[in-house]
Structures are given as structure tokens and as C-alpha cells.
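Contributing new records

If you add data, match the layout below exactly. Sequence lines come first and carry their own label; structure lines follow with theirs. Keep one chain per record. Anything else will be rejected by the validation script.
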Amino acid sequence: MTGARPAAAPTYPAVAEADARGATAALYAEIRQALGVPVVNLIWRHLATLPGGLEWAWGAVEPLYRSGAAAREGAALLRALPLPDTPGWSRAEVRGAAVDEAAARTVLRVLDSYNRSNAMNLVALTALAGGLRGERAAPPGPAAAVAPADGGPPVDGALPALLTPAQMTAATAALVARLDRLDEMGEGRIPASMYRHLAHWPGFLALAAERIAPLHDDGRLAGLIAAARDLARAAAERVAGALAAPGSPPTPPIRAAVPAALTEFTGTVIAKMVPICALLRRAMPE
């Protein structure tokens, strides 16, 4: 692209979906099918860089996705988030951001994919992180009659390619970096993949920044992130008893590396992106 900037070094290593081969590619296909989304989130792509780490972690949480527990609890988490009552965008506003009808459908698919998968992953991986720390699951309560559809329908269709900074104009890369810095927690080493999918439409990213930045500035975004973490911890306690025993780690370093990754992702970028994606999805005209 004209005006492209040099590629930045990856801040968190990951095996890209296009580069996955063999057992990793098969696990990626399982994850997409179990979550009902056309994308493998960064946490799974990072775990794939740890020899045996993806297999170990996915084996422990897979029952939560297959049973529908992660989908139901994720959907309940999204419903319980205390999102501010902000007006949605009009079709004219979205078109004014250089997002035509076809592009708007793709943007919705991106938001729906991350809205669904981030909430499910936040619950399931919070449960796994707690289990690996030795936290006990809450005793099971009375069974509730919950319809499988409560988790929402799967998201069909491919997502646009993840753009690297080198594939973006300097202005777009700066906008993605600005969005990543909003309510940055920790060292900010984990860039959100969702913005890289949406970087095909810089005008939409500008709309997103206009919607999210004021919430960052007045502290409401930090409150929403804290609420997402609290809701995820409560949900994790309800489902932790259904985790499969992960067994012995394949190599000694995995015993430290997987829990550390889970704690960082669930405590920072996933917890942050759950309310952000929910806000952007609600703002979109149907």
C-alpha cells in the first residue's frame, strides 16, 4: 500500500491461521466449530506457539464449549454488562465512514464473531486459569432449564484478512495503535486482532475511536472492564466443575507458560475487548 509503514515486531507470538499445519490446523478447525465462529482468537494462536500448550489447554476447556455452557454463560455476561445508553449510528453515518452496505455486513460479521468468541473465551479461560491456580469450583446448584439457543446462533462466513502494520497506511496503523492504547492495562503487549480485521475500513475505526475514547477519558471504560472480569469470575465458578482434568503438562515450562498466558489474556485484552465489542455491535444499524 502507498504510505505503508515498516512492520512492527509482534508483541505476543502466535501461529497464524494461514500458517497452521497438521495437528495445529486440526485443532484450529475444532475451535472454530466448537465456538461457532470463523476465527481462531489470539489466545489460542499464542498457545499454539508453546509445544503441546494448545492441546493441553483446549483439552481442559473443550467440554464447556461442546456442552453449550460457555456460550450460555458468555451470552449472559454480555446481557449483564452495564453498557452506557448511547445512541446508535445511523446508516448515513456508517456510509459517511466509507462503509457501504456490503462492507457493513462484513463489519457486522467481524463484530458478531468477536462478541461471541470473546465472551465465551473469557468465561472458559477464567475457569481454567482458576483451576490451574488450585481454586476450587463452586458446588453445583440446581439444574436450570436453559435452551441451547441462549448462546446465540453460530456466525457464518469468512472474515477479512488480518492486516499487519506493514499492510496498512501509516494513518491506519496509528489509528489501530490508538485504539489498542485505550484503557491499556499491564504493558500493553497484546494487540487486539479485531481492529486488524477492521483496518480494511479506516473510517469505521475512526467511528469506533470516537465512540470509545470518551468512555476511556471519563473512566467508564475501566468500570466496564472491571465488570466484565467480575462477571466472568462468577460465571467461571459456575462452570469450573465441568472442566476436564488437563493432566500433566507435556513439558515442564508449559506448567508456568500456559497459566501465565491465561492470566494475562483474561485479565487484560479479552476483558477489555468484551465491552468494547459489545458497544460497537450495539451501535451498528442492522
